[in-house]
Amino acid sequence: MIFLVACFASISTALASPHYTDKQLDAFEARVGRIFWVVSVNNRTPAFLSAAAPNASFEITELVGRKNKNPYYKVKFASGKEGYILPEAFQEELNLTILTVDPQADEKKKAAAAGEDEKKRLEWIQTQPWSQAVKQAAIQRRPVPGMKTGEVNKILGKPTRVTKIQAPQRFGEEHWFYPDGSVVIFQNGLLIRIEPKEKKD
Questions:
Q1: Could you tell me the CATH number of the domain that includes residue 153?
Q2: Position 173 pLDDT exceeds 50
Q3: How far is 59 from 77, CA to CA, in rounded Å?
Q4: Which domain holds residue 166?
Q5: Is the dihedral of CA 4, 5, 10, 15 positive or negative?
Q6: Which of 84, 99, 114 marks a domain boundary?
Q7: Strand partners, 58
Q8: CA angle, corner 166, sides to 160 and 171, nearest 5?
Q9: Which of 19, 55, 73, 196 is the most core-located residue (most Cβ within 10 A)?
Q10: pLDDT category, 200, cuts 50, 70, 90?
Q11: Is the same domain home to 111 and 127?
Q12: Do residues 84 and 117 share a domain?
């Protein structure tokens, strides 16, 4: 670690301007305590003294070397490892390979919402006056014949498409299509069968 800091200090001395103003140093220091995220752009990531993994977050923990106006950032990655980066290198990569917002925030939000929906689905199944076998099938997303459309909707979720069959001999028949290719068939509002995805030869 001492060797790394010494190496970094020598690199810092060679690359950094020794004439930072107090205002510039204050701006550098304002980032201390903030969290940023690393992304890879054309297989390039920021030049930390210790390598940063893509999609890793890090916190700037300290602005080192302010007194001699030859500063560098000390950072701590989410993994617990520490790294160092020059303020000008940081500035060059900001909004390119260093982001102020988690690039996976939307996916995490969707995953959290899906987890919450699944929890509600399981809780709803447990409140139904069904046998344990039917509840277990519902948990595994296998509705049983005789279930109502509302019950199937709770078990499987909304279909991507619904078709009403108009033929006289199939009066009151609805086909619900799901993303996995299966078709759930109702007659007069009750489940009569599920046709699995057709297997291609």
A1: 3.30.1450
A2: yes
A3: 6
A4: 105-195
A5: positive
A6: 99
A7: 36, 77
A8: 100
A9: 73
A10: low
A11: yes
A12: no
Q: Which amino acid is at 147?
A: M
Distance, in Å, from the CA atom of 109 to the CA atom of 99, rounded to the nearest integer, reads 18
CA distance 172 to 190: 10
- Final residue of a structural domain among 65, 99, 133: 99
CB distance 11 to 48 below 8 Å? no
- The pLDDT tens digits of the residues spanning 72-108 come to 999 999 888 888 999 999 998 988 888 988 888 889 8
Q: What is the pLDDT of residues 145-172, one digit of tens each?
A: 999 999 999 999 999 999 998 777 777 8
- At 12 the pLDDT is 46
How many other C-beta atoms are found inside a 10 Å radius of the C-beta of residue 177? Answer: 14
Q: In the block, which residue shows the tokens 């995220």?
A: 37
Same-domain check for residues 170 and 93: no
Q: Has residue 200 been placed in a domain? A: no
Residues 191 and 111 placed together within one structural domain of the fold: yes
Read off the pLDDT of residues 5-19 as tens digits, 9 standing for 90 and up. Answer: 444 444 444 444 557
In a domain, 201, yes or no: no
